[in-house]
């Protein structure tokens, strides 16, 4: 698979700003991209986008392939008289990397406003202070305004969302890139590429491609989507924090970027992936020489869990992409993992031909 083309597509998807609850830019672009590929499409009132690709055998399992549209971000909580902004987090940006970060604020109906998270000058930090991260409530955004009134003129108000800033950066390594919102534009790009292939060469069962909202604040969209789409199988594609860096031991996070996509056996307080489905994925990987990493995720949870819990009779599985520096502005991905994830998911979806394959005994 052409990694340059994947890199270009990922760059354009990560350039879009779609903090949780404000996913419209990604939803709109996804609707345009899916329209020529699918037989029907709809958007529910929550914002989840559904695209149906009809299969050729009505007896085969109905498969939902899904990724979330939203990215972590920020929300303005108040304006100070001096022209600064207090904020809270949307989802879980890593607090320790916030001081000094660039943030792009997204006022309604006005151009984006560039800001920085203010940071006390290093020269005057004393003792412990130099090594301590202040609580988010004590942090503030500085957009260069001279007063609260000026902020208001720029369209900023309590409730204005914001995102990390940073285009996708290629590294000197041929397949490694870093940037904001790799979580989960990488997962979504995989879903879209799979949709293109399934549209050209139809699978046995009907496939519903779902782009969900509000994942980063509690996996909310997927619970609604699973009830609406009523699939037999849910395949959720998402990113997972990676090990393999100097501060993490192999016991903590034994999987790494560049060693193949991830197959979750279990995720935190959530699903154990469906046994027969997991076996089918492993068999496909072995047949096609696709490397993969089997993981037990003790820190993360995905839309597969909420989909499975929302609607009882679903066989669910999560496939992941390891990415370094999770929930920061510089998440790092290896595009080989992404290419392999696309092949693996497409090939396994084609093997789902009979609902009996999902029976555990
Ligand atoms: Zn995610």
List keywords for this structure.
binds zinc ion; 8-stranded mixed β-sheet; 361 residues; globular; 2 domains; alpha+beta; 25% strand; single chain; Elongation Factor Tu (Ef-tu), domain 3; Aminopeptidase
Sheet with the most strands, sense and barrel status? 8 strands, mixed
Q: What is the percent of helical residues?
A: 25-40%
Query: Would you list the SSEs in sequence order as H and E?
Result: HHEEEEEEEEHEEEHEHEEHEHEEH
Instruction: Tell me the span between the first and last alpha carbons.
Output: 38 Å
The count of helical stretches stands at 8
The proportion of residues in beta strands is 15-25%
Class of the largest domain in CATH? Alpha Beta
Ions, cofactors and other bound molecules: zinc ion
In the CATH hierarchy, the architecture of the largest domain is: 3-Layer(aba) Sandwich
Strand tally: 17
CATH superfamily of the largest domain: Zn peptidases
Walk me through this protein's architecture:
- This protein has helices spanning 3-15, 24-34, 148-153, 182-200, 220-229, 275-287, 303-310, 335-351; strands at residues 40-43, 49-53, 63-68, 73-79, 84-90, 102-105, 113-117, 141-142, 161-164, 169-170, 176-179, 207-212, 233-241, 262-267, 293-297, 315-323, 331-334.
- A hairpin with a 7-residue loop joins β6 (102-105) and β7.
- The chain has an eight-stranded mixed beta sheet with strand order 1-2-12-3-13-16-14-15, sandwiched between helices. A six-stranded antiparallel beta barrel has the order 4-5-8-7-6-9.
- By secondary structure, it is α+β, with helices and mostly antiparallel strands.
- α4 crosses α8.
